[in-house]
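C-alpha cells for HTH HARE-type domain-containing protein. Go.
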Amino acid sequence: MFLSEAEAEARLDELRRQRAALDRAIAEHELYLDLGRRLARPGIAEPARPVPVPAEPSRPDPASRSESLHSRSASAEPAPAPSPAPVRPDPTPDADLPGAAARREGRRLIEAAEEILAEAGRPMHAAEIWEQLAARGLTLPGHDPVAALNTRLWKRAQGGGVFRRLGDAVYGLAS
C-alpha cells in the first residue's frame, strides 16, 4: 500500500506537529529539572544541562500497527499470573529489606522537619520548612518537593502524630 503525495504530505505535517509538541515537553521538563536543582541548592545557580534523550527504535506505521494489534489480541494467550511473594521465615533488620535506605531517609527528613519547627517556635508553611531542609542538604524526589513534603506532613498530622495541620500547608508541633 503506497501513500499518495497528499497523504504523505499530511502525514509529514502531523509528524512535524508531534515533534514540536515533544520539543515543548522536553523543554518544560528541562526547566523543571533546573528549577529543582536550584531549589535544592539555594544560592548556587547551576546552568541548565541538556538531558540526553535515548534514541528510540523505528516504529511501524500506526495503520499497520493497529491491524497487527487486532490480529494479535484474538490469538494472544493470557499473561501468566504473578507468583506470590516469598514468605520470610524470620524477621530481619530493616537494613536487609529493599527500600530500607529510602525509609531511613524519610524518617530523617521528618525528624529534621520536627527540629526545624521546634527551633522556629511557630507554625510554618511547607515551603518554609522545605527551604530549611534543603539548606541542611536533604532532598525529596519528584517535580515539586514542597508538595511532596506537604503530603508527608499532612499524613503525619492525622491520627495524633507529632505535627498539627493549622491551615493549607501550614504545620506546627502537636504539643
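The radius of gyration is 25 Å.
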